[in-house]
Amino acid sequence: MKPGNIKWQTNTITKTDRQLLNGHKSCVLWFTGLSGSGKSTLANEVEKQLYAANIRTYILDGDNVRHGLNNNLGFSPEDRKENVRRISEVCKLFVDAGLFVLSAFISPYKEDRDSARHLFNESEFIEVFVKCDLDICEARDVKGMYKKARAGEIKEFTGISAPYEAPVKPELVIETDKQTIEDSVQQIISYLKQNHYIA
Hints:
This protein is 42% helix and 14% strand. It is an alpha/beta fold and 199 residues long. It has a single domain (14-193), classed as 3-Layer(aba) Sandwich (Rossmann fold), CATH 3.40.50.300. It has a five-stranded parallel β-sheet with strand order 2-3-1-4-5, sandwiched between helices. Helix 2 crosses helix 8. The longest helix has 20 residues, at 77-96. The protein is globular.
């Protein structure tokens, strides 16, 4: 079937209806940063706080998604681009469903993150730069990925043999090499409250 023969189906129940049912807005918290910077840990702790406040949430984690939806992708620039594109579309579905989706992916290229942002209304995309010194990320690396990358066993590893383009104007910068996990979570929750995402 050619794309020209595919038509968008308009549903009766809208995103606004789902948000009203849930009692809160929906958005994506897009956690980006080096491997070992603390994206997944932070996303999980933020989700616990939101869940306790009766906010409907879901986490999309980079490693988990590569076990299923993106298990046919490698780590070339082209595959990384496609990885982020697919995740962006899934995030859009979750936001349309009225949920908070916490997306924890390295997503190293600014262009790809900008493309993700353009899928959403202005207030629906919150870029969270999980900033951490490379040396600290390496020291935290329980899986030994950095060691393998430095030994040449892993090709195109972000921060070693592939670039990471830091966000220019993220909504939030969390410095996990300087802040405690409690302070980091509180910074995000405070942002959500101040900007009326949650009460």
